[in-house]
Design brief:
Number of helices: 27
Shape: globular
Distance between the termini: 54 Å
Low-confidence stretches: 86-95, 114-124, 302-323
Oligomer: single chain
Strand content: 5-15%
Mean pLDDT: 82
Radius of gyration: 34 Å
C-alpha cells in the first residue's frame, strides 16, 4: 500500500496530462481503500498550482451511467456540496466543461443560484486544478455508453484542464476489443492493486465496529485466526465485512446468554472461537456461490439421533488404489478443518445463508450435543474426552496428557463412548509419537473389545461409514480400518434389529395416518430418509391401501415417491427395489384392465411411470 500511496502522491505533485489507473479483482477492497485511506491522504496534499489550497477528492461510480452527460451530472452533484458556503463559487472552466450534464438535471432550479454566479476572477472559486476525480467501476459502464466516448471525455479533462483523474477498474472484466488502444491514449500509469490484508482488516473493524468496543477487542485479539482463514481462500473484502457483520450477531447472542447456562458458561471462549471459524468458512463459501440455504445437504449429513451437527473424525479413501472424486464436503473439511474436528452448526448456517434469524435455543441444543451434555451434566468419560480434544489438548502438560489418556481408555474398556468415537480413541492414544508407549496390537484389541461391550448402549447411525473415514496417508491405517470394520459391523447389527421393529410400526402408521407417516419419514433430519424401510412392507397390502384411497390420497402417495427418491437417492434405499417392483407390477396389471382415458387411468399410469424411473435410478447405484 505504501508504494501505491507514493505513486499517487508523485502523480498529484507532478505536472501531468494523463490519468492514473488502479486495477484489481472485484471485492479486493479498492473502493474501500480509496474511501477510507487514500481520500484523506489526497485531501491533505497541496495542489500543484496553488500552495494555499488542498486537493478536493470526488469519487464517481460509473456503474450504469449511460452517457457522458450523466457523468458530467454526477461530477457536478459531487461538487455541489462544496458550494454551499456562499463565498465559494464554481470556476468558469468547470461550468463550461460540465454544462451539458448540468442542463440535463431534472431539478435545475435548485442549482440556479450557483450557475448564475459562475464568473472568472470573482470570489473564491473551485477550479478543476484542485479536484482529484476518481472514476470507479469502469468495467460496469452501461452498454449504451461507448467506452471510446468515455475515454475521449477523460482525455479532454486531463489535456485541456490538467485535471488529476484516477480510474479504478477490474480490467479482467472489460470486454471491448479496442480497450488496450483506448487505454494507451489517456492512461499514463496502470497499477495493480495488491491489498494489505492486515491493514484492511484494521481499517474495516475501526470503521464498522467503533461503537462496539467489546466485539472490536475480540476481533483484534483473534486477528491472526481471522486473517489466516480469510486470506487463504478469499481476497474479497466485502466477504470479510459480511462475515464479521453476521458473526457480530452470533457473538452478541453468546455473550448475552451463555452465562445463564451453567454447564456451558466456562466454555464461552472456546465456543466463540469455534463459531467464529465456522461463520468465516460458511460466509466465504456462501458469498462465493458454492453453497446456499437450500443446498446445505452438501455439508450436512443426517444423523440417526436427529443431531443438527456432525463431527468428522478423519478423512478417508477406502479405495486405496483408485483415485476418488472428492465430495464438496470433503473438500470443505480439508480446506477449513485440516487438523481439527469439523462441527456443523445448523442454526448458524441458516442465519448466515438467509434461512432464518439466529435461534439461540437451537444453538444451545447443538452445543450440548457437541460437549456430550446429558441432563445438564457432562458425563465424566466425556469430560476426559473433551480435554483430550483439539485445541484443548495443547493446554495440557505431558504428565496430564498421559493421565487423561489412560483414563479415556478405562472408559473405552467399558464401552461408554459413542460408536463413532472409537477410531478417535485409538488416534488420541497414539498421537504425538505414542508418549504412553502402548503396544499397538494390544491397544487395537483392547479398543475393539471395549467397543463390543457397549453394544447395548448404541443407536444405529445411518452415516457412520461416512464419519469413520480414514486418510490413506494416516499412520496405522490398517489398524484404523480394522477398528472401523468392527464398528460398521456392530452398526449393521443394530440396524437389522431396529429396522424390523421400526418397520412394523411405520407400516401400521402408513395405513392409518399417511400424512403423519410422510412427516416422519421425509422431514429433513429424519433417520428414515437414509434407511431402508419398504423392504419389510407387504407390497400386496400397500397395493390394497392404494386401491381404496381416494384421488387426493393417491396423488399424495405419488408425490411421496418423488420426495423420497428424488434425483439422488441414498444407496441404502436400494434394498427397497423388490417392494417397488412388486408394487409396479400390480399397478401395471390393473392399468391394463382400465379404460384408456379418465382420471383413474391417468393416476395409475403416472404411478407406473414414476416407479419405473426410481427403480432404474436405484438400480444404477453402486
Amino acid at each position: 500500500m505504501n508504494q501505491l500511496e507514493e505513486i499517487v502522491n508523485y502523480y498529484l505533485t507532478s505536472d501531468t496530462n494523463y490519468a492514473l489507473m488502479i486495477t484489481g479483482d472485484w471485492g479486493v477492497g479498492k473502493s474501500f481503500y480509496f474511501k477510507n485511506t487514500l481520500k484523506g491522504k489526497i485531501e491533505s496534499t497541496t495542489t500543484l498550482k496553488d500552495g494555499s489550497k488542498k486537493y478536493k477528492f470526488l469519487l464517481i461510480s460509473l456503474f450504469g451511467l449511460k452517457s457522458v452527460e450523466e457523468i458530467q451530472s454526477e461530477i457536478f452533484l459531487s461538487i455541489y456540496p462544496l458550494t454551499k458556503n456562499s463565498t465559494v463559487k464554481l470556476g468558469v472552466s468547470i461550468g463550461r466543461s460540465l454544462i451539458k450534464g448540468i442542463m440535463s438535471l431534472t431539478n435545475l432550479d435548485k442549482y440556479y443560484n450557483i450557475l448564475s454566479e459562475i464568473e472568472v476572477g470573482k470570489g473564491d472559486q473551485i477550479n478543476f486544478s484542485e479536484l482529484v476525480i476518481c472514476f470507479d467501476d469502469l468495467e460496469r459502464l452501461s452498454r449504451n455508453l461507448n467506452l471510446e466516448e468515455f475515454i475521449g471525455f477523460v482525455n479532454s479533462l486531463v489535456e485541456n484542464e490538467s485535471i488529476k483523474i484516477i480510474i479504478i477498474a477490474n480490467e479482467n472484466k472489460i470486454e471491448q476489443n479496442n480497450y488496450s488502444l483506448l487505454k494507451e491514449k489517456v492512461v499514463g500509469n496502470s497499477i495493480e492493486f495488491i491489498p494489505d490484508t492486515s491493514k484492511s482488516f484494521d481499517s474495516l473493524i475501526d470503521i464498522k465496529f467503533s461503537s462496539f468496543k467489546h466485539y472490536k477487542d475480540f476481533l483484534k485479539e483473534n486477528k491472526s485466526i481471522i486473517i489466516d482463514i480469510y486470506s487463504k481462500y478469499s481476497l474479497n473484502l466485502r466477504i470479510l465485512s459480511f462475515a464479521l457483520n453476521y458473526y457480530h450477531r452470533v457473538f452478541s447472542e453468546v455473550e448475552n446468554n451463555i452465562l445463564s447456562i451453567e454447564i456451558l458458561k466456562d466454555k464461552k471462549d472456546e465456543i466463540l472461537l469455534s463459531l467464529l471459524k465456522f461463520s468465516l468458512a460458511i460466509s466465504i463459501e456462501y458469498k462465493e456461490g458454492r453453497i446456499t440455504f437450500n443446498n446445505r445437504d452438501q455439508l450436512y449429513v443426517r444423523d440417526f439421533n436427529l443431531s443438527d451437527f456432525e463431527n468428522i473424525q478423519f478423512k478417508f479413501d477406502n479405495r486405496q488404489n483408485k483415485e476418488e472424486v472428492k465430495t464438496y464436503r470433503q473438500k470443505f473439511v480439508e480446506k477449513y478443518y485440516p487438523d481439527t474436528l469439523f462441527t456443523f452448526f445448523t442454526s448458524i448456517f441458516n442465519f448466515i445463508t438467509g434461512g432464518s434469524i439466529i435461534q439461540f435455543n437451537e444453538l444451545v441444543i447443538e452445543l450440548k450435543k457437541l460437549y456430550h451434555i446429558q441432563d445438564d451434566v457432562i458425563p465424566m468419560h466425556y469430560e476426559v474426552f473433551n480435554q483430550l480434544n483439539y485445541p484443548k489438548v495443547f493446554s495440557l502438560s505431558d504428565k496430564e496428557y498421559k493421565k487423561l489418556t489412560f483414563q479415556m481408555l478405562r472408559y473405552s474398556d467399558k464401552g461408554l463412548y459413542d460408536l463413532s468415537e472409537y477410531l478417535t480413541v485409538f488416534s488420541f492414544s497414539v498421537r504425538f509419537n505414542n508418549p504412553c508407549k502402548f503396544k499397538l496390537d494390544q491397544l487395537e484389541k483392547r479398543i475393539i473389545d471395549g467397543m463390543k461391550k457397549g453394544k447395548l448402549n448404541y443407536n444405529f447411525q445411518s452415516s457412520l461409514d461416512f464419519y469413520l473415514q480414514v486418510d490413506i496417508k494416516s499412520q496405522n491405517i490398517e489398524r484404523l480400518q480394522r477398528i472401523r470394520s468392527v464398528a460398521l459391523g456392530i452398526n449393521k447389527e443394530i440396524c437389522i434389529v431396529s429396522t424390523k421393529v421400526d418397520s412394523k410400526r411405520l407400516e401400521d402408521i402408513c395405513y392409518k395416518d399417511f400424512e403423519g407417516f410422510c412427516d416422519g419419514v421425509l422431514k429433513r433430519d429424519s433417520q428414515y430418509s437414509y434407511m431402508s424401510i419398504f423392504n419389510t412392507f407387504n407390497a400386496n397390502k400397500f397395493y390394497q391401501f392404494f386401491l381404496k384411497a381416494d384421488g387426493k390420497l393417491q396423488w399424495e402417495i405419488l408425490n411421496f415417491w418423488s420426495s423420497r427418491y428424488g434425483q439422488y437417492p441414498h444407496s441404502a434405499l436400494k434394498e427397497e427395489i423388490i417392494f417397488l417392483q412388486m408394487l409396479k407390477n400390480k399397478l401395471s396389471i390393473k392399468l391394463n384392465q382400465l379404460p384408456d382415458y379418465g382420471l383413474i387411468n391417468f393416476m395409475f399410469k403416472e404411478h407406473v411411470s414414476v416407479l419405473e424411473v426410481y427403480i432404474d435410478r436405484l438400480n444404477r447405484l453402486s
